[in-house]
């Protein structure tokens, strides 16, 4: 029995010795494998430094992508376009000329649109002028004369009343319809030929020596009533500006050829001052009208 145990112990010792030898052999085998791997790496055309640099770049890119993205709000591009100009479709205008009131004349005009470029304007005039009221200055600066057939000469007289009526017709051409601001009738700059006719009655008196009794004379007031026809034609240039979308102001100026004729005279008047109502010749025209757009 003892021999068997001794044999078993010897076999265990041999087994332990074999394991020790095996352990001693493995480091040598590992060195051989590492040498083989090193030779293979050396044989490859690889630069370790460049690989390390590439790995560092990849690592930095990964870090950047891992950073939280900032919320960037893209503002829409704003294009400043000019606001469209809204054109009101007016068909007519009713106007009054307050400057005529200084002559004792009420002038009311009506303008009708033909198209965006042309219109027709017709004005009616009604006059009653005396030395009283707002026409005082205009009336006092008139020089009234009548033709004395007996003396074959003009004689002065004192005027008391001027009354009558008239009509003015214009064909207006609006000049800014093709301009960038695109104003159309009845607003904007315009040019217009015009024709005018007025019929006036002038009442006054003059003094004349009369024989009351044989050898006695005294001044006696004689009433005179003259009828005057006035014809005129010319061109004006004006501009109409809107106010509060419903009102308008019309400022105009130009010139007329004016011809005046009394009923009891053969020809047109001569040598009259242009401020006189019975003036014949070239005269200026200007005024300001206020009105309503419709």
Structural description of this entry:
- It is a single chain.
- This protein has 2 domains: 1-40; 92-293, Porin (Beta Barrel).
- The longest helix has 42 residues, at 2-43.
- The protein is built from 3 helices and 10 strands, in the order ααβββαβββββββ.
- An 8-stranded antiparallel β-barrel has the order 1-2-3-6-7-8-9-10.
- It is rod-shaped, with a radius of gyration of 57 Å.
- The termini are far apart.
- Strand 7 (188-213) and strand 8 (216-243) form a beta hairpin.
- The model has no long low-confidence stretch (mean pLDDT 84).
- By secondary structure, it is an alpha+beta fold.
- It has helices at 2-43, 48-66, 136-140; strands at 92-96, 105-113, 118-129, 145-148, 153-156, 158-174, 188-213, 216-243, 247-262, 281-293.
């Amino acid at each position: 029995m003892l021999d068997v145990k001794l044999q078993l112990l010897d076999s265990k010792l041999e087994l332990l010795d074999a394991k020790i030898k095996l352990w001693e052999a493995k480091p040598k085998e590992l060195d051989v494998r590492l040498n083989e791997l090193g030779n293979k790496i050396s044989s490859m055309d690889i630069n370790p430094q460049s690989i390390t640099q590439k790995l560092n770049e990849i690592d930095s890119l990964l870090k950047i992508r891992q950073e939280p993205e900032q919320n960037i709000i893209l503002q829409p591009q704003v294009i400043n376009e000019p606001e469209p100009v809204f054109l009101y479709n007016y068909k007519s205008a009713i106007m009054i000329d307050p400057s005529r009131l200084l002559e004792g004349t009420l002038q009311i005009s009506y303008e009708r649109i033909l198209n965006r470029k042309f219109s027709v304007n017709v004005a009616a005039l009604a006059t009653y002028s005396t030395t009283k009221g707002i026409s005082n200055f205009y009336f006092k600066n008139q020089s009234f004369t009548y033709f004395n057939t007996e003396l074959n000469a003009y004689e002065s007289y004192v005027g008391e009343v001027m009354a009558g009526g008239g009509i003015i017709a214009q064909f207006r051409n609006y000049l800014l319809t093709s301009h960038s601001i695109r104003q159309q009738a009845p607003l904007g700059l315009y040019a217009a030929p015009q024709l005018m006719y007025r019929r006036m009655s002038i009442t006054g008196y003059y003094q004349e020596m009369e024989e009351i009794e044989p050898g006695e004379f005294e001044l006696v007031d004689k009433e005179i009533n003259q009828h005057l026809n006035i014809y005129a034609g010319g061109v004006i240039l004006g501009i109409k500006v809107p106010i509060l979308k419903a009102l308008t102001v019309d400022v105009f100026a130009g010139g007329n050829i004016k011809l005046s004729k009394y009923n009891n005279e053969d020809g047109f008047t001569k040598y009259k001052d242009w401020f006189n109502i019975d003036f014949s010749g070239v005269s200026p025209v200007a005024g300001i009208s206020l009105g309503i757009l419709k």
